[in-house]
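Table 4 source record.
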Amino acid sequence: MFDGSSHTRNLRALCGACSSSLAACLCVAAVVAACDESFDPIAPSELAFSVFGYLDASADTQWIRVMPIRPLKVTSRDALGATVTLEHLGTGRIIELRDSLFRFSPYSDPDLGPGGAYVHNFWTLEDIEPWAAYRFSARLEGEEPAEAVVEIPRDYEVEVAINQVRARGETDELRITGVKHVPFLGMAANFYDGCELSVRRARYEERSGDDETLVIAITKQRLEPPDHCGPPWVANVALRIVGSEAAWPAGGYSPLALGESGLTSNVTNAVGFLGGVLTKVIPYENCEFQSDGAPVPDYCLLRYTPETAMVGGTVSDSHYACVGPLDSVVVQLTEMDREPARIRTVLSNRAGEFLIGALEPGISHFVWARAPPIPIDSVWVLEQFRWRYTEWFDLHAVHTDTLTVMPGQRLDYDIHLRRLLPCNVGTLLGTVTEARCGDGPIDSATVQLTELEVPPPLIPRTLTGRTDSNGEFLITGLRQYVHLLRVRGPDPDSYTERVDYLRFPPNRVVKKDVQLGRLTPCSEPPPGGQ
């Protein structure tokens, strides 16, 4: 949305503190990024506020930035003292928004100055209704309010045309009907290539559009893994579509545009912009046809309407103590009693979750799920400084079932894959002592083990233990993978940290004694009263 390292740091800082939906977090982050650089400085004005944000009928939390217009870049931590409300123009219901003060430190962004920067983000957990209008109002006692009327779009329809003809390239089409403007459209692919988890954005371009239907070309990107990494397991691909009933400034959601003197604001007695949207996040799975002689269409059409259904859930190991959720499991739905039949395919993500949408009601589907094989042996490759797996085994049986969905249904469907092998776990025990000053055992030291280079469908885990008064610890349930061992004292400022790498054979107990050094003089009492 914007450029510059300071804006990026602001976005990361705010998203770390935001626990609501992704759309809300992006909104606030963009808002904060604009609040200082856009008004550096602002000439004296009779306007009361700068306002920026949007109301999203699909979000669980609404955020609107409201800041006093000021001649200087410096911001104050004082309460704004403003009353900010939303009025539902159809019912007259009044929603009062609460003020939240966010501080950005000069340590994370030197451009903010020694005092940092404070911004006010007003929020509410109240639902915003589709196809409704709201009057926004921000007022200070004795002054004219800043107001705007925001229209929320209705629930619009989305159709994805997935190309079935390889010779025509890697371009699909997205048709959006029932909404006038799409200020945001994003496509993200989450994948794991054997080295790290990554998210890659796919390109898209608007081909044509009118007031009824927007047709957008989606260009598929091939996922090329780095050197020495395996082929990418694509966990999931999703489209994020943000529809709006009203036009947005500068053709989209641009916080930097607020600094332009010629910008037309839709908020009276203020500068800025307040939009209204409805966000759809839809799975973008593979879709192909299976035919026994019937002509196969050029495109596999998936329609997302209020009448179509969705099936989603979690794929997990039937023996929860062994693995739990499973990553990169192929979940496939095949239409039954149709010619040609559509086959829908998705992969579970690193939390074991999957979602298949745009299912026509009343059609029976054959469900098939298979986890990729896991390694049972490996060798250490010194040149690459990593383990290379040499033998693989199907740890889980294949899952099959049939299901039928109802109109508009969101069916929760969890899949438990039966294990074909018993659990193989290891145990780590040892003692943590202080070495430099001869203080002896360290009580309440933290021993942390993080699994490394765990291939799909397994999900890396972090296990943590603490030492007792004798400095002893025990951690069990360890799988046969390389672990990063971190041992820290009860006070990280008083002890050194020990880092090591361990590998646990199945059904083995490994003893590992660790010594830490004090960072305080030996003449002082040991930390923790030892």
